Amino acid sequence: xxxxxxxxxxxxxxxxxxxxxxxxxxxxxxxxxxxxxxxxxxxxxxxxxxxxxxxxxxxxxxxxxxxxxxxxxxxxxxxxxxxxxxxxxxxxxxxxxxxxxxxxxxxxxxxxxxxxxxxxxxxxxxxxxxxxxxxxxxxxxxxxxxxxxxxxxxxxxxxxxxxxxxxxxxxxxxxxxxxxxxxxxxxxxxxxxxxxxxxxxxxxxxxxxxxxxxxxxxxxxxxxxxxxxxxxxxxxxxxxxxxxxxxxxxxxxxxxxxxxxxxxxxxxxxxxxxxxxxxxxxxxxxxxxxxxxxxxxxxxxxxxxxxxxxxxxxxxxxxxxxxxxxxxxxxx
Amino acid sequence: xxxxxxxxxxxxxxxxxxxxxxxxxxxxxxxxxxxxxxxxxxxxxxxxxxxxxxxxxxxxxxxxxxxxxxxxxxxxxxxxxxxxxxxxxxxxxxxxxxxxxxxxxxxxxxxxxxxxxxxxxxxxxxxxxxxxxxxxxxxxxxxxxxxxxxxxxxxxxxxxxxxxxxxxxxxxxxxxxxxxxxxxxxxxxxxxxxxxxxxxxxxxxxxxxxxxxxxxxxxxxxxxxxxxxxxxxxxxxxxxxxxxxxxxxxxxxxxx
Lengths: 332, 256
Description:
The complex is a heterodimer. Chain A is mainly alpha-helical. Chain A has a single domain (49-324), classed as ABC transporter involved in vitamin B12 uptake, BtuC (Orthogonal Bundle), CATH 1.10.3470.10. Chain A has helices spanning 12-24, 28-44, 51-76, 84-101, 106-131, 135-154, 164-171, 179-197, 199-209, 211-216, 221-247, 258-268, 280-299, 304-329, and strands spanning 159-160, 249-250. The radius of gyration of chain A is 20 Å and the shape is globular. Helices cover 34% and strands 27% of the residues of chain B. Chain B has 9 helices and 12 strands. Chain B has helices at 42-50, 72-77, 95-99, 117-130, 147-159, 177-192, 204-210, 233-241, 247-255; strands spanning 4-13, 16-26, 31-35, 57-62, 65-66, 80-83, 106-109, 112-115, 165-169, 196-200, 213-218, 221-227. Chain B is globular, with a radius of gyration of 19 Å. By secondary structure, chain B is α/β, with parallel strands linked by helices. In chain B, the strands form 3 sheets. Chain B has a 6-stranded mixed sheet with strand order 6-9-10-3-11-12, sandwiched between helices. The mean pLDDT of chain B is 89. Chains A and B meet through helix 9 and helix 10 of A and helix 2, strand 8 and helix 5 of B.
């Protein structure tokens, strides 16, 4: 079974490509797309190139970015979490109702928000690993359950009036930088280190690459998957916290179809849809591409209905390009 | 005392009974061939030894220590390595990641324990060099290598942590002639280092040329335990198929 050997790529571009993937775990193509998109937008709209607009993009990217980090971990382990958008909504409602309706202090409300997400993720992971139900079905079911529960808890109404300390997380601007942006950067750095440089991260990729190889290597695959889905839920909870505090309310309809944007960002950033490859830096670049796209379309006054279509098309296009490249690489 | 002893191993999958009380021993520096028809239970028996499957009853000891309650990882840590027929490689990861999978060396930076990539790379390269394997670049994903090169990685993974026992499941089935010889040479080398080797193979010529002893599994029982020096191809074929006139089949096998 002599698999054809691929030639070692040569040339400046190919050399740079290898450097980027090896050292930074980022695909060079995605950075080129991001820069290209930014150039196009700044030509099309006079408002694009400004500090305040960049802050807008970063702020809008913070929620999606954190969800995309969750998606990166789950996808690169060969899993799938479709529930993150709904769990974001549920967490925001739980946090708001703990703070407003129960009048609990901010630390408890923050803990409840993230905890609610992690709990939903734990349930996902438990049913997937112990119940042997495919992740697609479990998380699709949780997408419905979490959304429904958010509506039940809030009685279908938006919960307003979060305490000031909580609002600081979404609206504070230390050194002029929005808090959600700071939190995204910190979370991204930590999670990049976890995925690329810790045993937990290496095992995540190995499980997604060849579950059997991970099993024979003595890795506790079920426990690892359970942890990953809990982590994914917890990150969705954090995203819910940032979203709710930014708009000063727990909205049961927050985050609808955010999983689409988050998974798209992860895949544009180089995460393999079928597992085995993924990088947080790449995902952040992917999330920024989505952010620039949405921001640019907003500035050009394109109706949001079209934006939804654009995001869906970008997802399919990104997977198409990835599959195309993989077929090229294995060709004789 | 044997290095490895499996006593009275029984295993069923649902209503299908695969092993009916199999005994197998292995000494240090001994090469034992495990042969038998498809479905005789060879791979199942070995997966019970490595801990991938749980035995329904029976006992497995390594240097007298009971292994049954240990996880696959713990058994590996005690020196039992298996090279699987499908090689069990994570193909998008590089050579070092595969060799050290599940046993990555770490170093502490600001109290966080991070994988020591430089050490992994260095030691992986050293192991590949020691095996005399020809790999283009070890930083590339294993999936981009040829079948023989991938097998070198799987072998390197089994040998990096100074195993006491190496189990090989059909290591020569998919290889070119020259690669087969280098695997057989490797088995002899392991033997000279005092490592016990269990070789599962359908290629009876290979088994006759490198083993000290041959255990034949037939329908879930160890039906023969032959000393290789005193054994002919006809004896093995007869034990595998369960008697009868096997002269023609044996002659065919002997031709290779």
